[in-house]
Amino acid sequence: MTMLREHGGRRRNAGRPRGMETKVVRLPVPVADLAKRLAHRGIRAGDVNAFLDVEAGLPRTVPLVGATAACGFPSPADDYLDRPLDFNELIIENPAATFAVRVAGDSMILAGIYAGDIAVVNRARDAVPGCIVLALVDGEFTIKRYQVHKGGVILHPENPAYPDIVIGAGCEFEVWGVITRSIRMF
Known about the structure:
CATH topology: Umud Fragment, subunit A
Number of helices: 3
Radius of gyration: 24 Å
CATH architecture: Ribbon
Largest sheet: 7 strands, antiparallel
Distance between the termini: 80 Å
Strand order of the largest sheet: 3-4-9-5-6-7-8
CATH superfamily: Umud Fragment, subunit A
Number of strands: 9
Number of domains: 1
Oligomer: single chain
C-alpha cells in the first residue's frame, strides 16, 4: 500500500528569498531586462541605447528674430528675421550619444536645475572636474557636480542643505553622461 503525500503549503528551499516587498507587473521585454540588470547592479552606460529605442525625428525649425529682446525697458524690434532656428542643433551636440531625463529633487537649484526640468545628457563627453553629470551610485541615479579631490571622486550638490557624496572603495559608481542643457517649462 502506498502512502499519499500532502501537496501545497510551505516547502523547504521553495520560493524566492525574503527581502524587499515585490509586485508583479507587465513590462516590455527590454524594460524588464534593464530592470533586472539594474537590480543586479550590472547595468552599464551603453545599455541605455537598447533601452530607450528613440528615433530621431524630422528637423523642425522656428523663425529666429534677428534682434535681441531686452528684459528691462521695451525697445523697438527690428523688422527682419535671422535664419530659421533648429532646436535639434541648439540642444543636441551628438544625436547618437544624447538622451534626456526628467529632474527630481532640489539638490541642484543653485546651478539652475530644478525639479521638473528636463536635463539633456551627452554620453560622448568625458566627465571633467566642475561639470555636472548624471551618475549611477549604488544603483540609484543622481545629478551632481563632478569633482576630483586627492585622487577620489566627490559628487557635489548645488544646495547647501545636502551633503557631498564621496565615492568610496566599496561604492558602485558610474558616470552615465554629462549634463549639457536643462530645459524648463513655465
